[in-house]
Amino acid sequence: MTSLFEEVPVSIDGDIPTTRVEVKVNGERRAAEIEPRLLLAHLLRNGFKLTGTHTGCDTTNCGACTVLLDGEPVKSCTVFAVQANGHEVTTVEGLASSEQLHPVQEGFKDEHGLQCGFCTPGMMLSAVALLNENDNPTEDEVRWALSGNLCRCTGYQNIVKAVIWAGAKMRGEA
Ligand code: FES
Ligand code: FES
Questions:
Q1: Which of 123, 62, 63, 59 is nearest to 95 (CA)?
Q2: What is the residue with the minimal CA distance to atom 3 of ligand 1?
Q3: What is the pLDDT of residue 3?
Q4: Which 8-state DSSP code applies to residue 39?
Q5: Measured from the CA of 123, which atom of ligand 2 is nearest?
Q6: In ligand 2, which atom is closest to the CA atom of 115?
């Protein structure tokens, strides 16, 4: 696992006081000097250039900004970056290894679980959180786990199939 330490000033504007945060992101230690009001989604996208985390509504509705915070799915547009200080964040960029896609990514590919792809990173992180707890979920359990993530394209059917497929892969059955 790589370990980097990086200073990233984000959104420093005139006399607004700033604070330092340190976050382990996708296994790498990152640090930034930020305004306390900065949202985690904006630290990830604008500060750390991890633009796989999408922002759709900015109001906790769509789930496009979902990341894992210490393994739990959170909507990063609703979390202040300072709340992630000292914690671990996983974004979609952290799912694949250098050689292999995560089973959830393979599932979305194999089952055509996306069209425009805007919702996909958030969907994948919610799916990963589910499958880490339960790698053999029912369709209803998948739908419940993804109920905070909205998709405007697919009708959800193939997304559910993709997560079921990924569970089978994680169990060694796909
Ligand atoms: S951008 Fe965070 S829930 Fe929509
Ligand atoms: S694939 Fe377009 S919003 Fe889900």
A1: 123
A2: 60
A3: 47
A4: B
A5: 4
A6: 1
- Domain parsing of the chain, residue ranges: 7-94, 103-170
Q: What CATH number labels 103-170?
A: 1.10.150.120
Pairing between strand 19-25 and 66-69?
unpaired
- Ligand 2 centroid distance, CA of 113 (Å): 9
Amino acid identity for residue 163 in this structure: V
Task: Name residues whose C-beta falls within 8 Å of residue 40's C-beta, 6 or more positions apart in sequence.
Answer: 67, 69, 74, 76, 77, 79, 80, 81, 83, 84, 89
CA of 160 to the centre of ligand 2 (A): 13
CATH of the domain spanning 7-94 = 3.10.20.30
Ligand 2 atom nearest residue 152's Cα: 3
Q: Would you state the pLDDT for residue 136?
A: 98
pLDDT mean by block of 10 residues, the chain; 174 residues: 57 77 97 94 96 96 98 98 98 95 98 98 98 98 98 97 98 91
Could you tell me if 8 and 35 are in contact, meaning their C-beta atoms sit under 8 angstroms apart?
Answer: no
